[in-house]
Amino acid sequence: MRLRNQTLTGVDIGTHKTCALIAEVNPETGNPLIKGYGFVETRGLKRGAVVNIEKLSQTISQAVNAAETMAGTSVSSCYVSISGDHIRSMNTQGMIAISRDTRGGIGEAREIEQEDIDRVIEHTRAIPLPVDRQILHVMPQEFTVDEQSGIKNPINLLGRRLEAKVHITTYSTTVASNLTRCFKNIDLTIRNFILQSLASSVSVLTLAEKEAGSILIDIGSGTTDVIVYADDGIHHTGVVNFGDQLVTSDIAYLLRIPHENAENIKKNHGYCFTKNVDREAIIKIESIGNRPARELPLLKLAEYIEPRMEEILREAFMEAKKADVPFTSIQSVVITGGGALIKGCEELAESIFHMPARIGFPTNYSGCEEELNHPGYAAAIGMLQFALQEKLNNRIKPAGSESWLSRIWDWLKNLTESIM
Ligand SMILES: Nc1ncnc2c1ncn2[C@@H]1O[C@H](COP(=O)(O)OP(=O)(O)OP(=O)(O)O)[C@@H](O)[C@H]1O
Ligand SMILES: [Mg+2]
Question: Which domains are assigned to the chain?
């Protein structure tokens, strides 16, 4: 499929900020070339779920308008990130016969085609789901052809039986419907939802990290998203129901200062690994009213921050442990999201996970690099990369659709794009 000159729009609705990005495809690299962005403080969302339709619609509208003005274009549809404690995940598998003899038994081996892969993946979707739940992503881990397991791409291999192991994520249709209403209110169509942790991992993790096994943790303001890769497949996705706004709240409460001041102190002086803090350093804290400024040892501040950051990372650790692979097959941990910027985060993560840690910044995009070079934009940028990749693979299906319906949808979409 030709993707040049097509515009892609992604809207990452975080608890702290909503970020809209408009991109084209960079003809040299095939990566997103960001043409416009808009960042707005989010209103009307709590831990991934809409709590005020009007306020969230306004937030999205402001972010998209800013991106449109900058890109000099107007958009009618977009990809949207989704997260929150309504997201569930599971590992499952499906199996199909590649060829059948005339009596309905398994016949001669033949070459595996893309249609067989689509068919076996479709089989894995046949899981019982409550009425208020829909499949978000089906992510293949590996295939087995007859007795041969561990195959990443079975195309053209000869076989009689094809088995797929997949990771499936589902979401609450109520949460999705409320999000959809916000977009409808401002005349925007949602092309598809993309899981936030998956989006972040696409822009932050290297192929080597995915193959060697990595845990990606996106510490946002209100949620912490976790995704576990092993052998270049996804083995767990999970959401911890709180993020680093709790650190700010703790500082505000313990120092009796406004939330805004606490946020600045956290960003400018906060440290979450007390072992490495300068024990002599003192900072000045502005007091409310006419009271004189107070002095606070940096170590004391770090002692306020460390337990909460440790709690976030320990909860992320427990989530990662739910993966169906042993921890020995995971080599590193990568932390992204705005919360990753707190000083000492790598050291604290290494002490909890007992493996090397790094802070993940978004990569593999161009345009507006200076403004977007921040872990808080990993999900927004990754969303565009994921959408691009899926469009190339022609695999994206509208959420909840059946395969024949999605083919018609894809066909109509391609037709519209070729006309426009
Ligand atoms: N330099 C910094 N040091 C410490 N914390 C920071 C820094 N910059 C941003 N943060 C924190 O990052 C958080 C915002 O992160 P991010 O933008 O990833 O959240 P979000 O995507 O809006 O939220 P969520 O993903 O939870 O819905 C805020 O709580 C902010 O305090
Ligand atoms: Mg986020």
Answer: 88-170 (3.30.1490.110)
